[in-house]
Amino acid sequence: MITRQKYLDKLIAFQDTDLVKVVTGIRRCGKSTLLDMMKRHLAEQGVEENRLLTFKMESMELAGITDYRGLYDLVVSRIGGQPRPYLFFDELQNVEGWEKAVNALRVDVDCDIYVTGSNAFLLSSELATLISGRYVEIPMQPLTFSEYLDFRSATWQPADKTNSDIALFPDGSFATLSSLFEQYRTFGGFPYLALQEPDELKHREYMRSIHQTIIVRDIMTRAQRKGLRAVSSRTVLERICAFLANNVGNETSANKIAGTLKADGQSTTRATTDFYISTLVEAYLFRHVPRYDVKGRELLKTGGKYYIADTGMRSYLDSYRGADTGRVLENLVYNQLVFDDYDVLVGHLRGGEVDFVATKPKQKVYVQVTENMQDDKTMQRELAPLQRIGDEYRKIVVVGSGSYPSDIDGIEIVNIIDFLLHR
């Protein structure tokens, strides 16, 4: 079990507090394993095994637990007389009213609670109302490039060394970081697959499994949960999913998608399209990034872009064509910024755009992403929006290939690999 230290540290920071720790993210990104890591950490601290209680809600063993009353009774019976139990609930979203059981346990039992879920309704308004201020969300993603290298047992030169392109393996063999990055860009960062050399056939089957689980279990069956609208057409849902995957980094809207589907003979309304998009976002397959007026310093009500949780899933949905590599790079940069705890928006300027405006307390960075800037026209197109921003915050152009000065008029030029590895 390879420790994903960043996420584990976040759980540890809230250990033994009166907060329900809720780990969210796309299926198979490592949430269940993170709970196992936390259990191992507690065991190393001296917590007895019989105080570490796990409830895997998708296990056949617990298939009969469908509502909060049954869940509460089961947990209380398992606790018995154990002092200060640690309760781990995996994939709770299919238990109707689960938040009532968790809240009751929090009140009735001296315990520490950890929850995972693969759908955003896990943090519905009902939950927020019921235990407002008493839970903390830890969003989880598939592997970043540096984590991917860890899973492949590859070591590389850090920022304070020469930026070598060589990665070394424990057996003494080596590969270029460039080749490993190409694998990562194509096959993505789902942990199970990252433990071995990529294989397209295996990857295709694994991606199909995740995709179908999200479509069928997380979205199509949502009407079974009280108060949630049904998704009536799987065909339309999958078409919209494919459209969003093909258009990562492009500004789009429900109107545009509905029009495209209609032109292709698939009739749907703007409202239905908007709803179907929301279910894909709810399942953590995509994120919507709003537009931000850089000069006016306000969010814009229209537009925005969508980015996919994992570029390997995009490869699968795009039949491994390897198209639009520049926008895939943009998606990777977006995912890295989110991992680095930035709030990310699309920057709007009159007559131009900045790919990302990324902020966190006392920090802001403007980021452009491009495949290359080998010709003067492309370089000017990428630099111009950043040159028009008058503040003193960092401005970066992330490039996929090519050799450039490290700084042009105060704008940093950074290779994609160095950006992802913080070199």
UniProtKB/TrEMBL annotation:
Residues 230-369 form the DUF4143 domain. Residues 20-149 form the AAA domain. It comes from the Bacteria. SUPFAM superfamilies: P-loop containing nucleoside triphosphate hydrolases (SSF52540). Pfam families: AAA_14 (PF13173), DUF4143 (PF13635). InterPro entries: AAA_14, DUF4143, P-loop_NTPase. This is ATPase. The lineage of its organism: Bacteria, Bacillati, Actinomycetota, Coriobacteriia, Eggerthellales.
